[in-house]
Amino acid sequence: MSPLILILLILVVAVAFYGLSRLSSSTAREVAIPFADGELPRAEVKAALERMGCLASDDGGSAITGLLPGSGGSWGQEVTVKIETGRIRVRSAFSSSQAFGARKNQENVDRFRAEWERRAEVRAAAADPVVQASSEARAREVARNTMWGGGLAVAAGMGLLSIALCVPAREGASPGSKISLVGLALMPLAYGLPRVWAAVARLRKKADG
User: Fold this and answer.
1) How many domains does the chain have?
2) Fewer CB atoms inside 10 Å of the end CB: C or N, the chain?
């Protein structure tokens, strides 16, 4: 394959990914929820995400992310709760480019709003050790399932990356094949690594606590 054809191939792939990303962004949904009670309780944001079935990941910054598992039709969604002045902004988007399925993202932001609005009720019930243990058990189950799914994605990505980097190319073979494999490997790695890290952090939190 000539260098010119290889460059054109890379450009075509880049344009295709850009177009798909643009389409995917149109499926995202978000809502702003007013909050004027002082400092935002990050623990209650994470609890609301966990009640939705998310694995909540908090890096201590201005946003808290909830990772929802994938299904047969998608790689799952990311529900991001961003802390702003006087409000929180909730956004749901697919974990990977997907041009259809805006309804699922709308359901996610609606579910978060519903869980957030019942936080006082949940706070009162949380004093019950049985309720507390049940909530913790559900959160840990989500973390374990997410770790398995993320781990399988990481293993698949590492396998593709190993093939692309370690298997010597045959004489005269197209270099585009290795570039394609590397590109394919990055997709499961980008999906799986954040989930594994967040799951391990969630499971260690209880053990350390």
Assistant:
1) 1
2) C
